[in-house]
Amino acid sequence: MQIKRKSTAIWSGTGKDGKGNLTTQSTILNETQYGFNSRFADGIGTNPEELIAAAHAGCFSMKLAFNLQAAGFSADELKTDCEIVLEDGSITQSNITLAAKVSGIEAEKFEELVKDAEANCPVSKLLNAKITVNFTLN
Predict the structure, then answer these.
(1) Angle value at C-alpha 40, between 47 and 50, nearest 5 degrees
(2) What is the crossing angle of helices 107-120 and 48-70, to 10°?
(3) pLDDT tens by residue, 80-96
(4) CA 130, 135, 137: angle at the middle one, nearest 5?
């Protein structure tokens, strides 16, 4: 099965003083602003790293949910935070912190499923960066 999704970025002006907006196919982002201040400071709007963090957190969570399902478990809750590190012009790290509630699973089995999700979610495979996952299982 092949799935295609798209987004559009429109940018006007220079890198520092210009401005842009992003629109996704689903329109969940619809001309959402981004620019130098939202990327490199605390300005209003989004930025590529924030969107990659959201994509990685969501992809990892879904892959882990599929792993749990295949092992006969269902997550009560997977709360996944992702921090993308941009340094010297490259994304160098994606750091995931997971707080999970899964009834009846042994810690060793859960860790195995987490490690598989870390290595095999499609966004993990896409990123050329160090990926870390720290988790708690309640």
Answers:
(1) 30
(2) 130
(3) 999 999 999 999 999 99
(4) 160
Phi, psi dihedrals of residue 56, rounded to the nearest 5°: -70, -45
SS3 string of the chain?
Answer: CCCCCCEEEEEECCCCCCEEEEEECCCCCCCEEECHHHHHCCCCCECHHHHHHHHHHHHHHHHHHHHHHHCCCCEEEEEEEEEEEEECCEEEEEEEEEEEEECCCCHHHHHHHHHHHHHHCHHHHHCCCEEEEEEEEC
Indicate the pTM of the whole model: 0.93
What is the distance between the alpha carbons of residues 78 and 96, in angstroms, rounded to a whole number?
12
Q: Given pLDDT bands bounded at 50, 70 and 90, which one contains residue 68?
A: very high
pLDDT in tens, 89-136: 999 999 999 999 999 999 999 999 999 999 999 999 999 899 999 999
